Amino acid sequence: MLDSPELKPLTEQTSPTPGSGVTVVPVILSGGSGTRLWPMSRASFPKQLWPLLSEYSLLQETVARARQVSLASPIIVCNEEHRFLIAEQLREAGVEHARILLEPIGRNSAPAIAAAALLVAETDPGAVLWMMAADAAMTKPAALPAAMDLAVAGAERGMVVTFGMHPTRPETGYGYIETGAPVPGVPGLSQVKAFREKPGVKQAEEFIDSGDYLWNSGMFVFRADTLIREMEQHAPKVMEGVRASYAARASDLDFERLGADEFKRVPDISIDYAIAEKSAHVAVVPTDLGWSDVGSWDALWDISSKDSHGNVSIGDVLIEDSANCYVRSDKLLTAVAGVEDAVVVVTEDAVLVTHRDKAQDVKKVVDRLKREKRPEAAVHNRCYRPWGFYESLIQNDRFQVKRIVVQPGQKLSLQKHFHRAEHWVVVGGVALVTRDEDKVLVRENESIYLPQGCIHRMENPGKIPLTLIEVQTGSYLGEDDIVRIEDSYNRT
């Protein structure tokens, strides 16, 4: 695992703002699905929410890095499906007063950062925004404050500043930045001559040999008013649509929900295409942060701690006579023998085996699963909800057995089913169950029957997690056979 001293513990992170004294607002984009890290990363629980490199999730590590250079509360831009998961991970990280912007639909980085800029500009248009993805890693975070000082200095001069990573190999999975002349008055900051798409092997080698190219990290620093100005000039349709969506936003618990109809009409475009490749005011900070976008299993192997044979093993894993492998198992004992450069990932409902050189092709597997309408393409066996989670243990045509865990103080929606009955057996904690007009306290080793069509609700009034086994019986057991009558989390 990575050595991440700045993450221990997250709740004690304190740090100064950059030397210039300006406000730096971290803006963390958490909209990706990370399909190349399937079967762990899926749309329902993407890679940024997993602890892939330490005991903390990538999102939590990103928040910790933000605290190195800013005490301002972060803005998280995410989709609606992940809002409660992200709020809970922020709470675990000791982050208070975070602002969470909800996208009705993914529209790439340009609309997301435009919405965040409008939010900040309402109270402080001169604030500096630090835009970053929630799913990247840095193995050399000590170099970050100095790099941020340069970036902020450029942003204060009205520039859009990105971070360019010194390349260590001819990587074909990253975009590149061609550096230009130094920026006058800011030693260490360079103008951007051009952005380059992901190259082939030969061109990547040429980039490395020239010494004029950096990896494009996708991180940007700019003032809120600068971003709005540049967007209005170079991507007016994006800015127009985001303004309309922002004006139609609504507060929902701890979230700011952008107007759905307006946001769906916004063009789908990245900040690179919308602004960075068009603006004459783009600069780059060349630096070495040990950065990786953790975009594939091979990239994850590259930055993870290894044994003497170059193997990474996580979970209940046995490796014999093998070298340079990445082997990860959630539960099952996984044994690998006599192989080299292999990736083996085992989850509860799927197994991936591939050569490390073919790690980028995992996306093709996910695309095929989607075409075949396989649920494994997008959802895990364990499904997280704002109140806790559930997972299927046994499933058949006429019955299903689930394990349900409800966190203290939380409760499910008041609901009913048209096609199934349920039997609940409490195996840990205490459940307060609403069944039509009755309220029943069900303790450990006790059970309750909920006939088809009855109005019911489960809640945890205790101080420890409530765990129960649910047995469903009926002609149809799909999750869409739920009629919500009342819900604490404003779900429909």
Word description of this protein:
With 492 residues, the protein is of the alpha/beta class. The chain folds into 3 domains: 5-292, Spore Coat Polysaccharide Biosynthesis Protein SpsA, Chain A, CATH 3.90.550; 297-371, no CATH class; 382-486, Jelly Rolls (Sandwich), CATH 2.60.120.10. 22% of the residues lie in helices and 32% in strands. The chain has 11 helices and 30 strands. The protein has a 6-stranded antiparallel beta sheet, with no helix packed on it. It has a 5-stranded mixed beta barrel with strand order 6-9-7-8-12. A hairpin with a 2-residue loop joins strand 25 (431-435) and strand 26 (438-442). Helix 3 crosses helix 6, helix 3 (109-121) crosses helix 7 (236-247) and helix 6 (224-234) crosses helix 7. The two termini are 40 Å apart. Residues 1-17 have low confidence and may be disordered.
Summarize the SSE layout with pairings.
Layout: E1 24-30, H1 58-69, E2 75-79, H2 83-92, E3 99-103, H3 109-121, E4 128-133, E5 137-138, H4 144-156, E6 160-165, E7 176-182, E8 190-196, H5 201-210, E9 213-223, H6 224-234, H7 236-247, E10 250-252, E11 255-257, H8 260-264, H9 271-276, E12 282-287, E13 291-292, H10 297-303, E14 312-314, E15 317-320, E16 326-329, E17 334-337, E18 342-346, E19 351-355, H11 362-371, E20 382-385, E21 388-395, E22 399-406, E23 414-416, E24 420-428, E25 431-435, E26 438-442, E27 447-450, E28 456-459, E29 466-474, E30 483-486
Parallel strand pairs: 1-2, 1-4, 2-3, 3-11, 6-12, 14-16, 15-17, 16-18
Antiparallel strand pairs: 4-9, 5-13, 6-9, 7-8, 7-9, 8-12, 10-11, 18-19, 20-21, 21-22, 22-29, 23-30, 24-27, 24-29, 25-26, 25-28
